[in-house]
Amino acid sequence: MDSISLGSQVVQYIFTGLTVGAIYALVALGFNIIYNVTEVINFAQGEFVVWGGLILAVLAESLGIPLFFSFFISVGLVSLVGTVIYWTGIRPLRQPTILTMIMATIAISIILKGLAMFIWGKDPYAVQPFVEAPPVTLWGAYIQAQTFWVLGISVALVVALTLFYQHTLTGKAMRACADNPGAAGLVGISSGRMILFSFALSAALGAVGGAIITPITLMEYDRGAMLALKGFGAAILGGLGNFYGAVAAGFLLGLLESFATGFISSSYKDAIALIVLLGVLFARPQGLMGSSLQGDE
Amino acid sequence: MKSPILEAENIQVFYGAVRALKHVSFHVDQGRIISVIGANGAGKSTLLKAVAGVVPPAEGHIRFEGQSIKGLSATAIVKKGVSLVPEGRQLFTSLSVVDNLTLGAYLHYRRKGREEIASHLGEMYTLFPILKQRAAQIAGTLSGGEQQMVSIGRALMSQPKLLMLDEPSMGLAPLVIAEIMQTIVRLNREGTSVALVEQNARAALRISRYAYVLENGRVVREGKSGELLTDPAIIGDYLGEA
């Protein structure tokens, strides 16, 4: 077989990058959802992705439940995990400060990782692709059909999330709570409920990310921390709290990683996110698109 | 004699070791406007916050329509029919005017239909016609007077029986202040009881029936607003040259 042309390689890297980037974008969005209401960085965000993938693997592969239902059950269960985290790890804190809450989320992520190892063991789990289809050939590059599911579902989620925040009462109440918690209380919006809801929502988002990526990358118990780090890098790069920024930065980070892997070495793959994170913090701490922090005193 | 809709007795509020309110008692009669005047830092805002459930009173009783509301959450107190227009408007500045107003009716969404809430929204636009033109505008970009209207409108969307306003005239031009005060009178005529806290003592005394003067966290005077307006001591301390 001939060596693959440079053009085909580039296309291959682009699609690989976008696929991974979509997951980073979902994790970054998850960070923002909780951050906007609480100013807390939830470091357990990556665990939601892991749990989404692993629960899907059990339901669809071990129990043989149709993939479609398994997907929604898995997202629902992880969302429940998100609410349990809030009830058991965040809400009981006495005199909660941002810092203690962030510490609590780190503890929670370690617990979730331990639990995942206990339940699923250390081996990676596989899930069949959503639809059995041969890879698509595009300019000489082979692209798995699942890639299009990942991209399609991610984009659909971003659109749905935007509509939710712009047009539903709960979405507006969450924005109000992020904007001015004191005034939100005066009109009867319970900030506790909104925080609970933000945990459930961001957990669901992470779970979707896990469920759609597992057919491509498999899933194992200890991926959470790295996913959280990459997603956090994307959230910072996009401007903390900025939704569109998070999505764009997630994809950008995925692409950078993919090209670095292809043209430099796969050993540097994980370093890219860290370099970007540090670079942004040094040079442009408000992120590429500006942070919701701007304007606050 | 009208019965009081709100009775507060012996309220004490502490911020840490600082006693912000010292045995303050006041009441609002059904269907009336009362005002609380006093210098900056006298404890006026704290008084309204204590009633609204924003700061917990350490001592005293607060009864609304005969029932104790002391210790209830701000949300529970709004549900009972007490709404606060906070100092400095406190709008949701990144949301549109119409979203700010609709969120004022947040607690009603489950019990009332969307149509009913839309009709309340219509009433707000009748009260403040300019807000209808500004409906889609981001609240943070409005002028001070318009922001105050949104803040009052948002509080009214919860259909309060008692409306409490904290310094509604702050930072506004005299003409706009007059407009806001007229609106308060109009709302009162339509049946809402009002507790008004103001540094602009003259404007407050003119529209209220009864008034309290707060100094260093204590009520130092109270009486009919008309009498306070002509009282030489009050003129000297709070009204300046007429």
Automatic annotation (TrEMBL), chain A:
InterPro entries per the UniProt record, alphabetical: ABC_transp_permease, BCAA_transport_permease
Cell membrane listed as a keyword: yes
Gene Ontology biological process: amino acid transport
Pfam families listed in its UniProt record: BPD_transp_2 (PF02653)
Main location per the UniProt record: membrane
Family note: Belongs to the binding-protein-dependent transport system permease family. LivHM subfamily.
Official protein name in the record: Branched-chain amino acid ABC transporter permease
